[in-house]
Amino acid sequence: MIEPDPAFLAVRNVSMRFGGLLAVSDASFFVKEGSITGLIGPNGAGKTTLFAIVSGFQKPTTGHVLWKGEEITARPPHLLARAGIARTFQIVQPFAGLSVRENIAVGAFLRHKRRDDAIALAEKVAARVGLTAELDKPAAALTVAGRKRVELAKALATEPKLLLLDEVLAGLNPSEVRDIVPVVRAIRDSGVTVLMIEHVMQAVMNLCEAVHVLAQGRIIASGTPAEVVATPAVVEAYLGHGAATRLSGKRDA
Amino acid sequence: MKDRQLSLILAFAGIAALVPLFVTAGTWLNFAVFTLILCLAAQGWNILGGYSGQYSFGHAAFFGTTAYLTAVLQTRYGISPYAAFAIGIAAAAAVGWVIGFLSFRSGLKGSYFALVTLAFAEVFRVLANASEITGGAAGTLIKLDVRPENFQFASRGTFFWVVLGMVVLAMLLTRALERSRLGAQMVAVRENEDAARALGVDALRVKLAAIALSAAMTGAAGGLYAQYFLYLDATIAYGTWISVEALLAPIVGGAGTVFGPVVGSIVLHSLSEFTKSLVGRIPGIDLVIFGIMLILVVRFPPRNIPGLIRRWRGTK
Amino acid sequence: MLEAVANGLLTGAVYGLVALGLTLVYGVLHIINFAHGALLTMAMYAAWVCWAVFGLDPYVAILPLVPIFFAVGYAVQRFVIMPASQGDDNNILLVTLGLSIVLENAMLAIFRSDTLSVQVPYAMEVIEAGPMLLSFPRVVGFGVTLVVALVLFLVLTRTDTGRAMRAVAKERTGAALVGIDVRHVYAVTFAIGCACLAISACLLLPSFYVNPRVGNAFVLVAFTIVVLGGMGSVPGALLGGLFIGVVESLSGLYLGDSLGQLGIFVIFILVLLFRPTGLFGARA
Fold first, then answer.
1. Which of C105, C216, C228 has the highest number of chain B CBs within 10 A, making it the mutation to test binding with B?
2. What transmembrane ranges does the database entry give (chain B) (predicted)?
3. pTM here?
4. Which residues are paired to A165 by β-bridges?
């Protein structure tokens, strides 16, 4: 893949070391404007760390993150949010004492000073993710699926240009996944670029135009979903050393 | 719902305003004024502790700063008590901002924030006790000169109304805050700082705004205290007692609510008067009750009196 | 000056003992116990009662008071702090604060605000050590503190209870999984902390006084020591204690009594503010 210049979002040679552990090792990839891009990989591959770096929660040991050609490495999260990069958390983080409406409004307040405007936007966003019926409930009272939607709505309410989704589908049952996939697609269609960490492969195949595969802190493959799953290195990363040969051997037989 | 809140505030103001008309005994009015002053201090704590989730154990630093400035500026420099009061409030806010800046910048939260605020208040107490300008250990006396332009009134009732006005103002301010962007961001920081930052909330700025506002309110209580009792020393102004008073009422009455500090102060101080009338004036007995209330309120959710009443009514 | 340093070291040892209980509780339970000062006050009153009512020398009073305060500590943790805290940092803060308010003012209600002290023949005695005159009670305090620290070290490293405590301190969930009764270990740790306070109280009383607020004077000092020595570190508490003892003694010498305390508070604030937060802020 050829990197457009300047890329919408570019991660260049990023490494992250925690003590003796190299969590991310010289990772480079980019995200095309208007795309849904996936970041996949086995557990412990460093996906969440990489996300924390892109969203400004952690400073990489070395390397750069560029946003439309501008250096944003280690810029604090609230400034990134203001610039148009929003994220969700893998472990959902609702504001427990607040209602769903108020939760979403916290995001909406970023670009709307007046309470009425923020609330109006929050309600509009809630409608987009299917939360209209839950607006008055305390966020803590929702099901896992409901909380995932709140997490999504809060981030959307900041009116981002790039949305980083950290496993929004994890923990959902297949029918809940089916419900939320079109929501993500609609978000992209409204002009928001999406970068998602995901485990649910079917959803990744379904949604993403481009996928980057992270294993043991390295990007081992990039391409369309179909290209990536055909890469032997990816199969090995998921199924263990030698799996690719064994599988292709079987196919040959 | 929100309009009900406003009418409740106005109803409280209206009923409380009648107190001086019916209560004429000096000791009872003293009690009422004192309770209201502590209520204002507690309303200040509530902004930082209740809404923003940063538990300070050192609000005495703010109470004492306005109290001393109000007293010292008029007695030593001949500045009008009203101007001294206003300067004192601004100074308390500044002190709050600086303490907040140092602490929050260093990432102190939870117990560590509580400890560092306690230590700051103690530093102020030691300094006030040793320095000349505050009158040192002997304290500062404001000359009795009963004239309205001196912020001294012939009747205790007038002072009661002034303090009540400040308390109601603080309630209205808190209510406005609750409905504002800053208020929403404060609660977001309280509930989950990382999630708030991801949504574009500048957590440091929000906490600094909270501590400055909080310090100003508690400071105002200190200024009123100085003006009403006309005497200060380091233990009164910067003592641990006021830091404890300021946090007790909101915790007991419901932290992070408009009415929490008011309900808490009234309940706690009525309880303490009641106990005193029951067992006599044993020193410390009121605080023993306060401490037990604090433990019980934390021990048994929903953690405050209005919550308990709601639950009790709900189960009936 | 040399004498001030030496006396500072001797006082500092007892500070270290007070801090030892605090740091142990922090290290194992991960809570900051605001009631530590009030518990010390209570122990000092207990020692005073032993002397005034039963005629026991404060040093002898260590024998009955250690088991009593061990039991008190166990009960307080098990029946007050643990049920109320529900694991929430702010709740623990409030409960231990509430506890300290109750204890301190109960002492005030019982003993009133008068300052009490014990009269023992050796209170003013001094020991000549080369060019220095050292106060006898302080030398005793220093010696006993060293013994207690040694015993504690042996308990932590050589007994099953000690090993359980260290296991819980490191990895609470893991310890629970291998069958350690975490609640029991918590309560025992708190109890040991209180027993240390009982000893400190008996060591302090001959050369000090007691009033309802006396614990406050020590609690911030103890917190300073604990933060300085590294939260949860036993040797850190002792070294921190010695250091703070010297600082207090010297700042008292140069700044006078009223400003002498300032040095400690300032150190405390500076350490809290400028020590990298990762060392202790990570848990919150």
1. C105
2. 7-25, 31-48, 55-73, 79-104, 158-177, 208-228, 248-271, 278-298
3. 0.90
4. A196
